[in-house]
Amino acid sequence: MHALVAPCVTLLATIAPLVAQTKPQVPTEPPLVWDADVRRHVAAALVVRGIVRVDRDAVDKALTKGGHVEVKIEVQEMVHGAEQATVTFRCYVRERTNPRPDEHPTPAELLALDGADRIVFLCTVEAANYLVDDDGSAIVPPERDVLADLKRREVQHRRLLATPLPVDARHAKPLATILRDIVVDRDHQRAAFVDLEALGRDAVPTIVASMDDRRPLPVRELTLKNRAADAFEAQRRYSPKRVVDGIAAVLNQLTGESFGSLYNGARDEERAIAVQAWTLYAHYQLAAAAPAAEQQPKKAR
Questions:
Q1: What is the pTM of this model?
Q2: What DSSP string describes 231-275?
Q3: For the chain: N or C, fewer Cβ within 10 A?
Q4: What local confidence, expressed as pLDDT, does residue 9 receive?
Q5: Where exactly does CATH 2.40.50.120 map onto the chain?
Q6: The CATH number of 36-161 is which of 2.60.120.260, 2.40.50.120, 3.40.50.2000, 3.50.50.60?
Protein backbone atom coordinates (compact mmCIF):
# COMPACT_ATOMS: atom_id res chain seq x y z
CA MET A 1 0.00 0.00 0.00
CA HIS A 2 2.78 2.41 0.96
CA ALA A 3 4.48 1.65 -2.34
CA LEU A 4 1.45 3.08 -4.20
CA VAL A 5 1.17 6.25 -2.09
CA ALA A 6 4.58 7.63 -3.00
CA PRO A 7 4.02 7.60 -6.79
CA CYS A 8 0.59 9.23 -6.31
CA VAL A 9 2.09 12.00 -4.21
CA THR A 10 4.78 12.51 -6.83
CA LEU A 11 2.15 12.64 -9.61
CA LEU A 12 0.03 15.22 -7.74
CA ALA A 13 3.12 17.35 -7.13
CA THR A 14 3.76 17.29 -10.86
CA ILE A 15 0.17 18.13 -11.85
CA ALA A 16 -0.36 20.96 -9.33
CA PRO A 17 1.93 23.49 -11.07
CA LEU A 18 0.30 22.65 -14.42
CA VAL A 19 -3.16 23.31 -12.98
CA ALA A 20 -1.96 26.64 -11.62
CA GLN A 21 -0.48 27.56 -14.97
CA THR A 22 -3.72 26.78 -16.83
CA LYS A 23 -5.95 28.76 -14.45
CA PRO A 24 -7.95 31.27 -16.52
CA GLN A 25 -6.45 34.73 -16.38
CA VAL A 26 -8.80 37.54 -15.40
CA PRO A 27 -8.37 40.27 -18.03
CA THR A 28 -7.23 43.64 -16.79
CA GLU A 29 -8.92 46.84 -17.83
CA PRO A 30 -7.16 49.14 -20.29
CA PRO A 31 -5.35 52.12 -18.73
CA LEU A 32 -7.49 55.24 -18.42
CA VAL A 33 -5.65 57.23 -21.06
CA TRP A 34 -7.61 59.62 -23.28
CA ASP A 35 -6.61 59.22 -26.93
CA ALA A 36 -8.24 59.19 -30.37
CA ASP A 37 -9.40 55.57 -30.08
CA VAL A 38 -10.98 56.16 -26.68
CA ARG A 39 -12.63 59.37 -27.83
CA ARG A 40 -14.18 57.61 -30.82
CA HIS A 41 -15.58 54.92 -28.55
CA VAL A 42 -16.91 57.41 -25.98
CA ALA A 43 -18.49 59.66 -28.63
CA ALA A 44 -20.31 56.77 -30.32
CA ALA A 45 -23.95 56.11 -29.54
CA LEU A 46 -23.56 52.81 -31.39
CA VAL A 47 -20.55 50.60 -32.13
CA VAL A 48 -21.62 47.96 -34.62
CA ARG A 49 -19.84 45.05 -36.23
CA GLY A 50 -21.58 43.76 -39.35
CA ILE A 51 -21.86 43.50 -43.10
CA VAL A 52 -22.14 46.87 -44.85
CA ARG A 53 -24.70 47.21 -47.66
CA VAL A 54 -24.41 50.20 -50.00
CA ASP A 55 -27.06 51.18 -52.59
CA ARG A 56 -24.96 51.86 -55.68
CA ASP A 57 -27.82 53.59 -57.48
CA ALA A 58 -28.25 55.98 -54.54
CA VAL A 59 -24.53 56.81 -54.60
CA ASP A 60 -24.62 57.47 -58.35
CA LYS A 61 -27.61 59.76 -57.90
CA ALA A 62 -25.91 61.68 -55.07
CA LEU A 63 -22.81 62.16 -57.22
CA THR A 64 -24.83 64.35 -59.60
CA LYS A 65 -25.79 67.01 -57.04
CA GLY A 66 -24.61 65.87 -53.62
CA GLY A 67 -26.69 64.42 -50.79
CA HIS A 68 -26.94 61.85 -48.04
CA VAL A 69 -27.05 58.13 -48.81
CA GLU A 70 -28.63 55.60 -46.45
CA VAL A 71 -26.18 52.79 -45.70
CA LYS A 72 -27.34 49.59 -44.02
CA ILE A 73 -25.40 47.32 -41.67
CA GLU A 74 -26.50 43.72 -41.21
CA VAL A 75 -25.54 43.40 -37.57
CA GLN A 76 -23.34 40.54 -36.47
CA GLU A 77 -22.49 42.04 -33.11
CA MET A 78 -23.50 45.11 -31.13
CA VAL A 79 -20.37 46.16 -29.28
CA HIS A 80 -22.10 49.21 -27.81
CA GLY A 81 -25.79 50.11 -27.89
CA ALA A 82 -29.12 48.29 -27.85
CA GLU A 83 -29.37 45.02 -29.74
CA GLN A 84 -30.67 45.45 -33.30
CA ALA A 85 -30.80 43.20 -36.36
CA THR A 86 -29.97 46.02 -38.75
CA VAL A 87 -28.61 49.54 -38.31
CA THR A 88 -28.68 52.32 -40.89
CA PHE A 89 -26.62 55.46 -41.07
CA ARG A 90 -26.47 58.49 -43.33
CA CYS A 91 -23.30 59.18 -45.28
CA TYR A 92 -22.85 62.39 -47.27
CA VAL A 93 -21.72 62.01 -50.88
CA ARG A 94 -20.38 65.11 -52.62
CA GLU A 95 -21.09 65.82 -56.26
CA ARG A 96 -18.42 64.82 -58.77
CA THR A 97 -17.56 68.44 -59.50
CA ASN A 98 -16.78 69.20 -55.84
CA PRO A 99 -14.67 66.33 -54.50
CA ARG A 100 -13.16 66.44 -51.00
CA PRO A 101 -10.43 63.79 -50.81
CA ASP A 102 -9.91 64.58 -47.10
CA GLU A 103 -13.46 63.44 -46.27
CA HIS A 104 -13.97 59.73 -45.77
CA PRO A 105 -15.39 57.54 -46.98
CA THR A 106 -15.01 59.02 -50.45
CA PRO A 107 -17.63 57.85 -52.96
CA ALA A 108 -15.22 55.21 -54.27
CA GLU A 109 -14.42 54.04 -50.73
CA LEU A 110 -18.11 53.89 -49.88
CA LEU A 111 -18.88 51.73 -52.91
CA ALA A 112 -15.97 49.44 -52.04
CA LEU A 113 -17.50 48.84 -48.59
CA ASP A 114 -20.52 47.06 -50.07
CA GLY A 115 -20.51 43.52 -48.66
CA ALA A 116 -17.55 44.17 -46.35
CA ASP A 117 -17.38 43.08 -42.72
CA ARG A 118 -16.58 46.19 -40.66
CA ILE A 119 -16.77 47.81 -37.23
CA VAL A 120 -18.66 51.12 -37.50
CA PHE A 121 -18.77 53.95 -34.93
CA LEU A 122 -21.96 56.01 -35.11
CA CYS A 123 -23.39 59.07 -33.39
CA THR A 124 -27.09 59.94 -33.31
CA VAL A 125 -28.52 63.35 -34.23
CA GLU A 126 -32.28 63.93 -34.44
CA ALA A 127 -32.96 60.17 -34.55
CA ALA A 128 -30.58 59.60 -37.49
CA ASN A 129 -27.18 57.90 -37.30
CA TYR A 130 -23.99 59.37 -38.74
CA LEU A 131 -20.33 58.40 -38.70
CA VAL A 132 -18.56 59.73 -35.59
CA ASP A 133 -15.68 61.10 -37.69
CA ASP A 134 -15.11 61.79 -41.39
CA ASP A 135 -11.37 61.08 -41.32
CA GLY A 136 -11.77 57.39 -42.14
CA SER A 137 -11.39 56.16 -38.56
CA ALA A 138 -15.11 55.49 -37.97
CA ILE A 139 -15.13 52.39 -40.21
CA VAL A 140 -12.46 49.78 -39.47
CA PRO A 141 -11.83 46.09 -40.22
CA PRO A 142 -12.90 43.71 -37.41
CA GLU A 143 -9.43 42.61 -36.39
CA ARG A 144 -9.33 40.35 -33.35
CA ASP A 145 -7.20 42.69 -31.23
CA VAL A 146 -9.41 45.68 -32.07
CA LEU A 147 -12.58 43.82 -31.05
CA ALA A 148 -10.96 42.54 -27.86
CA ASP A 149 -9.85 46.05 -26.87
CA LEU A 150 -13.31 47.46 -27.58
CA LYS A 151 -15.00 44.81 -25.45
CA ARG A 152 -12.60 45.30 -22.54
CA ARG A 153 -13.10 49.05 -22.73
CA GLU A 154 -16.88 48.59 -22.89
CA VAL A 155 -16.79 46.65 -19.60
CA GLN A 156 -14.58 49.34 -18.11
CA HIS A 157 -16.96 52.09 -19.22
CA ARG A 158 -19.93 50.35 -17.63
CA ARG A 159 -18.03 50.27 -14.34
CA LEU A 160 -17.10 53.94 -14.63
CA LEU A 161 -20.69 54.96 -15.37
CA ALA A 162 -21.79 53.12 -12.22
CA THR A 163 -19.20 55.07 -10.20
CA PRO A 164 -20.36 58.54 -9.07
CA LEU A 165 -18.06 61.40 -10.03
CA PRO A 166 -16.44 63.07 -7.03
CA VAL A 167 -17.59 66.60 -6.27
CA ASP A 168 -14.85 69.13 -5.59
CA ALA A 169 -15.78 71.19 -2.53
CA ARG A 170 -14.18 74.28 -4.10
CA HIS A 171 -16.76 74.27 -6.88
CA ALA A 172 -19.80 72.68 -5.22
CA LYS A 173 -21.22 75.82 -3.56
CA PRO A 174 -20.83 78.23 -6.51
CA LEU A 175 -22.23 75.54 -8.84
CA ALA A 176 -25.28 75.10 -6.61
CA THR A 177 -25.90 78.86 -6.79
CA ILE A 178 -25.51 78.82 -10.58
CA LEU A 179 -27.99 75.96 -10.98
CA ARG A 180 -30.45 77.72 -8.68
CA ASP A 181 -30.29 81.00 -10.57
CA ILE A 182 -30.14 79.62 -14.10
CA VAL A 183 -33.89 78.97 -14.29
CA VAL A 184 -35.09 82.17 -12.56
CA ASP A 185 -35.39 84.51 -15.53
CA ARG A 186 -33.53 85.77 -18.60
CA ASP A 187 -31.05 87.98 -16.75
CA HIS A 188 -30.24 85.34 -14.15
CA GLN A 189 -29.78 82.77 -16.92
CA ARG A 190 -27.27 84.96 -18.76
CA ALA A 191 -25.29 85.64 -15.60
CA ALA A 192 -25.39 81.99 -14.58
CA PHE A 193 -23.84 80.80 -17.84
CA VAL A 194 -21.09 83.42 -17.49
CA ASP A 195 -20.41 82.21 -13.94
CA LEU A 196 -20.48 78.58 -15.09
CA GLU A 197 -17.76 79.20 -17.65
CA ALA A 198 -15.77 81.16 -15.08
CA LEU A 199 -15.51 78.07 -12.87
CA GLY A 200 -12.87 76.90 -15.31
CA ARG A 201 -11.61 73.60 -16.62
CA ASP A 202 -10.71 72.24 -13.18
CA ALA A 203 -14.43 72.26 -12.36
CA VAL A 204 -15.42 70.09 -15.33
CA PRO A 205 -15.90 66.82 -13.35
CA THR A 206 -18.04 68.62 -10.76
CA ILE A 207 -20.08 70.32 -13.49
CA VAL A 208 -20.57 67.02 -15.33
CA ALA A 209 -21.76 65.37 -12.10
CA SER A 210 -24.73 67.80 -12.09
CA MET A 211 -25.25 68.34 -15.83
CA ASP A 212 -28.19 65.97 -16.37
CA ASP A 213 -30.69 68.69 -15.51
CA ARG A 214 -33.77 68.59 -17.75
CA ARG A 215 -35.44 71.75 -16.41
CA PRO A 216 -36.48 74.18 -19.16
CA LEU A 217 -34.48 77.39 -19.48
CA PRO A 218 -36.33 80.73 -19.20
CA VAL A 219 -35.16 81.72 -22.72
CA ARG A 220 -33.52 79.80 -25.55
CA GLU A 221 -30.43 82.00 -25.67
CA LEU A 222 -26.74 81.35 -25.04
CA THR A 223 -23.83 83.41 -26.31
CA LEU A 224 -20.21 82.30 -25.89
CA LYS A 225 -16.97 83.83 -27.06
CA ASN A 226 -15.71 82.07 -30.19
CA ARG A 227 -12.26 80.76 -29.25
CA ALA A 228 -11.65 78.83 -32.48
CA ALA A 229 -8.34 79.67 -34.15
CA ASP A 230 -10.08 80.00 -37.52
CA ALA A 231 -13.15 81.81 -36.14
CA PHE A 232 -14.86 84.19 -38.56
CA GLU A 233 -17.31 85.42 -35.91
CA ALA A 234 -16.50 86.78 -32.47
CA GLN A 235 -19.33 84.91 -30.76
CA ARG A 236 -21.08 81.56 -30.89
CA ARG A 237 -24.85 81.70 -30.46
CA TYR A 238 -27.03 78.76 -29.43
CA SER A 239 -30.66 78.08 -28.57
CA PRO A 240 -30.58 75.52 -25.75
CA LYS A 241 -33.94 74.30 -24.54
CA ARG A 242 -33.00 72.59 -21.28
CA VAL A 243 -30.35 73.29 -18.65
CA VAL A 244 -28.38 70.24 -19.78
CA ASP A 245 -28.22 71.61 -23.35
CA GLY A 246 -26.61 74.84 -22.21
CA ILE A 247 -24.21 73.07 -19.85
CA ALA A 248 -23.04 70.88 -22.74
CA ALA A 249 -22.20 74.03 -24.74
CA VAL A 250 -20.22 75.50 -21.83
CA LEU A 251 -18.36 72.19 -21.35
CA ASN A 252 -17.42 72.33 -25.04
CA GLN A 253 -16.18 75.89 -24.45
CA LEU A 254 -14.04 74.78 -21.50
CA THR A 255 -12.58 71.59 -22.98
CA GLY A 256 -12.80 71.79 -26.76
CA GLU A 257 -14.59 68.42 -26.72
CA SER A 258 -18.06 67.81 -28.10
CA PHE A 259 -20.38 64.85 -27.56
CA GLY A 260 -23.73 64.82 -29.28
CA SER A 261 -25.58 67.84 -30.64
CA LEU A 262 -27.42 69.36 -27.68
CA TYR A 263 -26.63 73.05 -27.93
CA ASN A 264 -29.87 73.90 -29.74
CA GLY A 265 -31.99 71.28 -28.01
CA ALA A 266 -32.26 67.55 -28.63
CA ARG A 267 -34.31 64.46 -27.92
CA ASP A 268 -34.06 63.08 -24.39
CA GLU A 269 -32.45 59.90 -25.71
CA GLU A 270 -29.66 61.99 -27.24
CA ARG A 271 -29.28 63.98 -24.05
CA ALA A 272 -28.79 60.75 -22.09
CA ILE A 273 -26.12 59.55 -24.53
CA ALA A 274 -24.29 62.89 -24.32
CA VAL A 275 -24.37 62.91 -20.51
CA GLN A 276 -22.87 59.41 -20.47
CA ALA A 277 -20.12 60.50 -22.84
CA TRP A 278 -19.29 63.56 -20.73
CA THR A 279 -19.30 61.40 -17.59
CA LEU A 280 -16.76 59.04 -19.13
CA TYR A 281 -14.68 62.00 -20.32
CA ALA A 282 -14.65 63.38 -16.76
CA HIS A 283 -13.49 60.03 -15.35
CA TYR A 284 -10.62 59.98 -17.85
CA GLN A 285 -9.62 63.53 -16.93
CA LEU A 286 -9.65 62.67 -13.23
CA ALA A 287 -7.47 59.63 -13.91
CA ALA A 288 -5.00 61.79 -15.85
CA ALA A 289 -4.75 64.16 -12.87
CA ALA A 290 -4.41 61.38 -10.29
CA PRO A 291 -1.02 60.25 -8.92
CA ALA A 292 0.52 57.35 -10.82
CA ALA A 293 -0.01 55.02 -7.87
CA GLU A 294 -3.78 55.42 -8.23
CA GLN A 295 -3.78 54.50 -11.93
CA GLN A 296 -2.95 50.79 -11.59
CA PRO A 297 -5.08 48.64 -13.97
CA LYS A 298 -8.09 47.00 -12.33
CA LYS A 299 -9.33 43.49 -12.91
CA ALA A 300 -12.26 43.47 -15.34
CA ARG A 301 -15.48 42.16 -13.86
A1: 0.85
A2: -SSSEEEE---BHHHHHHHHHHHHHS---SS-TT---HHHHHHHH
A3: N
A4: 45
A5: 36-161
A6: 2.40.50.120
